[in-house]
Every structure is written in C-alpha cells, then in structure tokens.
Amino acid sequence: MIGPSTDIPAPDMYTDEQTMAWIFDTYDRLNTGENNRPVVTGKPINLGGSLGRREATGKGCMLATQRFLSKALIPEQQEIAGARIAIQGFGNVGAVVADEFCRQGATIVAISDSSGGIFSDQGLDPEKVIRFKKEHGSVVGMPDTLTISNEELLEADCDILIPAATAFQINKNNAGNIKAKLIVEAGNNPTTPAADEILQKRGIYVIPDILANAGGVTVSYYEWVQNSANEQWDLETINQRLKKRMFSAVDAVFELWQDCVVGDDFSQPKNNKVMPADCVPDFRTVALIIAIKRVADATLLRGIWP
C-alpha cells in the first residue's frame, strides 16, 4: 500500500518522528537494495528527515495568517503584531503556533489542551507553558492564570481564534458566541458546515484547514524531494520555499474570492462563471474550487483514461 512513489505517510495526532522511523525501518528491511527514504516523511533528521518539518504546520499557519491580514479585510488588524490570540490544542501544532505568533508580536491570551485551558489577559509565554505542561501533564493549573474550559476558550475575548485540536469543535451551538474576527484552522475539520454558515453571516472570516495547515504537507513534500534526489537542504532554503508557497496559496484564494464578490464590505455576489449568481462564497469554498479545478484540468488533459 505504501512505497516511495505511491502513498507517503506523515505524522499526525499521537504520532511523531519515532513512529515515522519505525515505518521507514520496517519498509526498508522488507525492500532492500533501494533508496527507500522517500517512503515516509517527518522522519528524524539522521534518517533522512527534513530540517523545519517539525515546525512546518505551525509556521505555515502563521504565514497564511500574515498574508491574509495584509489584504486589509479586517482594517483594524492588518498584521499579526498586537493581535490577541486564543489557541485550542497545545500538541505538536498548537505549541509551535503559539511560539510563531508570539515571535511576530502577538499576545497569546488563552491556551488549552484535552484537560482544559488557561487564560491570561496580560499574555502567556509559550515556553513557560510548554515547560509547565511537561512537568504537570497539562496546561491547567499554571500559576497566575485563570482556568477555563475548552468551550470557554472558543468564546474567549480575542482577535484571532486558532483551533488546533480535534474535529468539529466549532459548531452551531457555539458559533454565535465566538468573539474573534478571524478563525485560522490549524487543525483538521474543526468547523462544522452549520457553523460555517453562522460565521459567514456574522462576518467572521475563516482561513480553512486545507490552506491554513498546509505547511506540514508542503515540507513533507520537500522532504520527499530531498530524499528522492539524495540531497539535504538548509533550513533557510526550506523556510524561504515554504513562505513563497504559503503566500502564493493565500493570494490565489483571495484573488478568486474577489472575483466572486462586490461591495465595500464584500457581502454582495458578483455575476461570474465560478459561483451561482446569488451565492457569496467563503474562503473554504473558494479554496476547494481551486483544488478541484486543478485536478479536473489535469484529468481532462490525460484523455479518456483513467
């Protein structure tokens, strides 16, 4: 089922570099004499892993947000600096997200894990939160913070909400209470379709998961390329390529979205060949249109088969 050119796994929830190393080792022992390093990504560096892969999803999330804010759809928040951030989930992705946004001048006001959350109006230091969680198994109970539930975090007073946990956290029951102006989906499927409709009606923008968390799979691809060519790129090269890719992806979605809407507040549909005449698309719909069209165009060019 897997192979260097067929289906390339990468780490996700409850898996890490060690898991990827075991998969690679097992495959390599069963398929000797070949360059099998491309069979899996997210490997340890000394087994052919890529620099920057561990941080890629969180860094890509920050880059997507940075580019989106520069479009000035939220006039009072055109950069990450000064933004108040709430992050649901503090695992492999959430911890990096907190660090990346903090480096850009944001204030992390709320963080949660599976046990609950913490809030500080003055801001949380991601490094201190990481140390506390390692020592105590959870972020809950950290000194000088207010203990909150995961549900309360989603409705916290913040500018940007970043769900980086499990699916369907934002739903029809809480979407009407969210205070953030922007939701950035670092996790997969955190928002239900019913919640999407509510958020759009309320004028809350959503950077969808297939765009916001694409940094991880992008650098996994870079790892596969390096393995296939027997190369090792430096971190600066990888970060530059990731930034260029994330910025261009946001630009593509934003440009098509602009073709579908009119009005000072972008709330009116525009007659075009992309969407029905009475439909104002959200960014998730536009991103899916772009992705499906790319696959469809390539399929049509191939002819009858497949």
List key phrases describing it.
alpha/beta; Rossmann fold; two-stranded antiparallel ribbon; 306 residues; 7-stranded mixed beta sheet; globular; 10 helices
Short description:
The protein has 306 residues and is of the alpha/beta class. The chain has helices spanning 17-30, 56-69, 92-103, 126-136, 150-154, 193-201, 209-212, 214-228, 235-258, 283-302, and strands spanning 84-88, 107-113, 116-119, 146-148, 160-163, 182-184, 205-207, 261-262, 268-269.
The whole-number mean of residue pLDDT values reads 93
The CATH architecture name of one domain reads: 3-Layer(aba) Sandwich
The CATH superfamily of one domain is known as: NAD(P)-binding Rossmann-like Domain
Total of DSSP H or I helical runs spanning 4+ residues: 10
Gyration radius from CA atoms, angstroms:
20 Å
Can you write the helix and strand succession as a string? HHEHEEHEHEEHEHHHEEH
Q: Kindly estimate the percentage of residues that lie in beta strands according to DSSP.
A: 5-15%
Q: Please give the number of β-strands.
A: 9
Give the overall silhouette.
globular
Q: Which stretches of 5+ consecutive residues score pLDDT under 50?
A: none
Which CATH class of one domain is shown?
A: Alpha Beta
CA distance, first residue to last residue: 20 Å
The biggest sheet, with number of strands, parallel, antiparallel or mixed sense and barrel status, is: 7 strands, mixed
Question: CATH topology of one domain, which one?
Answer: Rossmann fold
